[in-house]
Amino acid sequence: MKMSSEDLSSFLAELKDWVSIETPTTSPEKVNELGRLIMSRAEEAGLATEIHTGNTDTRGAALGDHIVLYDPQRRSNEKGILLLSHIDTVHPIGTLAYTLPWKEEGDRIYGPGIADMKAGVLLAFRALARLARTSPLPIRMLIVSDEEIGSPSSRRLIEEEAAKAKYVLVTEPGRPGNGIVSGRKGVGRYFLSCHGRPAHSGRAHAEGRSAIRELAHQILALEAMTDESRGITVNVGLITGGTGANVVAEHASAVVDLRVPDRKTGAEMNARILGLKSVDPDVAFTVEGDLNRPGYVKDQGISDLVLKAESISKAAGQTVFDLSSGGGSDGNFSAAMGVPTLDALGIVGDGAHTLQEYIEVSSIPVRWNLLTELILQG
Questions:
Q1: Rounded to whole angstroms, how far apart are CA atoms 292 and 298?
Q2: Could you tell me which residue ranges the Peptidase M20 dimerisation domain spans (predicted)?
């Protein structure tokens, strides 16, 4: 289905409005503000809306709500198509005003969360609004608010919606060169905490037991678990600790990210990380966490979707390529259930999670054609 120049202009104007509402996962009130705007647009298009309370993350922080959209005239037991997206981003409030303003440069438009994944959400929403009553299969769209932290609140809902689907289309950002994703690594998140004994670093240093020193031992042990040849990466991405340079640190903590290629490797690495022990017996050490996304492995159902995408692109005089990614997404959940899942069907862009995040305007009609034809071919 071709996108007209008027549709493209309208798309960009609406996208600017969406990007202007900054929606970090940690600001549920802002996430819900954008959610209300989307639901208002959905109701104007004659779509039904459901709100599912976001509850809290694994550390007890509040989360935004999740939204399901569909045509109320096509509710049935027939398995259909699930469009899967998220509106939370990683950029803190103020990024748009100070460090990553909306900026148009040639074929690129920059902005916080524009690629990951507000442009993809808008693409899916417009496809639903346009095709909900004419598509061969019923369409449902799920928009979640916590993907960027592993979807602790939305996972059950994602799996419930995926179970109703013949296949799942995920609108994470497309890869440069018109790439899509047909496999992803599994993801784990772990929290380390060390509790030592404080002391003055000058006059009573020997009486102290440094939590930071203990944490340093654990960091080295974790980083040593990375094995690129097996597709395993362990990254200590956040650390905190201490109260002053002249104090032996009583507390120190870290947050760890794990990536694995499959369930078996995930179980192995999960056991290794949770099995870490304190090096200094006088420092209390705890490690908590688990795999929060199973591996997304390309199977025959996914291969068939890739072939369909390639055929659609070829018919339009374009090429598309598929790849596996080290990044996780909500597509991991549906793929692990055995529901054919194709990912990275959003607008092509790059720089996600950085201050150089952008989309390619020329890719919008290309990706519109790909997504809508995947829907229309059933």
A1: 19
A2: 183-272
Both tokens assigned to 253 = 């903590």
CA dist 375 and 138 (Å) reads 9
H or E element in which residue 302 lies: helix 300-315
Weakly modelled stretches of the chain, pLDDT under 70? 58-59
Given a contact cutoff of 8 angstroms between Cβ atoms, the answer to whether 52 and 66 are in contact is yes
pLDDT of amino acid 58: 66
CA distances from 268 to 184, 225, 251, 259, 335 (A): 18, 11, 29, 12, 21
Give the CA distances from residue 103 to residues 12, 92, 113, 164, 211, in Å, rounded to whole numbers and listed in that order.
12, 18, 13, 40, 45
Give me the residues paired with residue 141 across strands.
Answer: 69, 83
How many Cβ atoms are within 10 Å of 122's Cβ, its own excluded?
Answer: 24
Contact indicator for 149, 89 with CB cutoff of 8 Å: no
* Average pLDDT of every residue of the chain: 96
- For the whole model, what pTM was predicted? 0.88
| Same fold for the pair 5-185+295-376 and 186-293 | no
* pLDDT tens per residue across span 281-316: 999 999 999 998 998 989 999 999 999 999 999 999
pLDDT of residue 354: 97
Domain ranges of the chain: 5-185+295-376, 186-293
Written as one string, the DSSP assignment of 138-149 is: -EEEEEES-GGG
> What is the full DSSP assignment across 139-197?
EEEEEES-GGGT-TTTHHHHHHHHTTEEEEEE-PPBBTTTEEEEEE-EEEEEEEEEE-B
Would you state the structure tokens that stand for residue 328, as one six-digit string? 């996780």
Cβ–Cβ under 8 Å, residues 145 and 289: no
Q: If one looks up domain 5-185+295-376 in CATH, what number appears?
A: 3.40.630.10
Task: Report H helices in 235-276.
Answer: 263-274
Q: Which CATH number fits domain 186-293: 3.30.70.360, 3.40.50.150, 1.10.10.10, 3.90.700.10?
A: 3.30.70.360
Q: Active-site positions?
A: 88, 147
Predicted pLDDT at 378: 84
